[in-house]
Amino acid sequence: MAPSGYLTCFTYLGAPAMRGIAGRRSEAARHREVLDRLTQFSALREEGQEMQPTGATGTRATAHAATDEVPAWCTGCRAPSHWVHSRYVRRLADAAPGGRPVRIELSVRRLYCENSTCPKVTFAEQIDGLTVRYQRRTPLLQRLVEHAGILLAGRGGARLLQLLGIRLSRTAVLRHLMRVPLPEAVTPAVLGVDDFALYAEVYGTLLVDGDTRLPVTLWESRDAAPLAAWLREHPGVRDGAPDAQHVSDRFHLWQGLSRRVQDIAAAQRSCPAAAADAPAAPAGPAPPEPGSPGPPQELGYAQRHAKRLFEAVHQQLSQGSRSCCEIARNLDLDRRTVRKYARATRWQNVVRRPGPPRTTALDPYLGYLRQRWDEGEHNARVLHEEITAKGYRGHYQRVKTAVQPLRRQLPLPEPHQRPLAPREVARWITIAPKHRSPDVRERLDRLLAACPELHQAHELVREFPAILAAADSTALTGWLRRLTETRLAPRVSLAKVLREDAEAVANGITNPYSSGVNEGRITDLKLQKRIMAGRAGVPLLRQRVVLIAHLRRKYAFTAPAPG
């Protein structure tokens, strides 16, 4: 029995017959969850309890409660009142525990205002945390609807709410989303401004607070006039922002440098081939040319099938068949298959040749596994731990499968080395040395030894992080001079671009603020636009971009303190 003054009435509407002990426990758990949700409001009193099944097509939990005879505060003048005018029942939808819709039937009072100077004659009492004026949902459910709209927009939010037992249309979710007030706009001390492509040949402007890194607002235009008008409307910002600085973000500086290194690697394609891992094979007989008859060997099923079809088609041709359609009818084949075999001069030309063997993350460690196996270490778990310490990130099961041939006294397959792509070479050079795996370090050393141009590029690239870490823009001049002296077109063009925007680059090195925050927010903006299939108008897009950023900040995950 609940204490006096608390809700104890609970009704199930439309509940099918429960089956088994587990079902009864589940119903009791949902019952208890709703009661625990409502018993926190001390102004409610009990009105009994009943169970009422009404069909077998879904269920709805209904709770009955009434307010106690306690003073209520006028919604106009906040004066207390005991003078009851009447009672009426409010029906509130609440969050659905266990996917079951919940309705709270709450008997509330309408009271007279005892303050003669108050313009209100009567008012309805409100229960903090449970009722809101002109609203048929509890604040908990209303927040859930608003958050679903902020995170997933209309259609996605409606689907999520349906999974939670709350039925709303996509237009209703959007309507509730647009009613959510935006955070109060404050004049930021540091304002980031950037434009973005909104639609085809239509651009917009996004403002971001440089200190909080949160979006402020956005609009459809990238002209200077709307920005100047916004700055005039916010006190503390002078007209036109004459002291505004252009700051390049470090991400794009690194991206431009990486692309130039990639261009150099693409121009030096012979270097990656010279730095291959596998040593040169001993001299031996030259491999046969593709398509030439090699030594006799047993044919597989695909080869026997291709040879049989080749002989059948050419036999039909030798017997006087004139068209591929006629041969296809005689052999019950597709005419395109007959045409392919008729054009071939040898059946080997029709067989699909296997592609080059695929490389795996375990290939660089096969030599080490073979060495440790010869030394007597036959435990796959220990071998996996050893190569993991060397940089391997794969699963133990792959190591266990790889050493199976050694258990049968068979050799390990030779590691396959695919040719290095220019993008991969650029990533190796630009990544911090401490983040390179042992295999990458070994291969990069061989590559730099084989290619002086890449070695010089590597030295210049590694100087740039030191300039950024020291926040010293004076060292940039000497670095650009050395970049030009290399006489390589990609690096010379990079130096030219950086010199043309030298002030912004220097600010990006010395200033803690940059346009990188704007670039990240624009990326998130485009993601939200794709979620809505590109059909969102500017007001809806502004509402979601601003609110979702604040929502993420509010519910940001923080790791628990150790100990």
UniProtKB/TrEMBL annotation:
Superkingdom of the source species: Bacteria
Segments of skewed composition (Low complexity): 268-281
Residue spans of biased composition, Pro residues class: 282-296
InterPro entries: HTH_IS21_transposase_type (IPR017894), Transpos_ISL3 (IPR047951), Transposase_DDE (IPR002560)
Residue span, HTH IS21-type domain: 309-373
Segments of this protein annotated with the region Disordered: 268-302
NCBIfam families: transpos_ISL3
Protein name stated in the entry: ISL3 family transposase
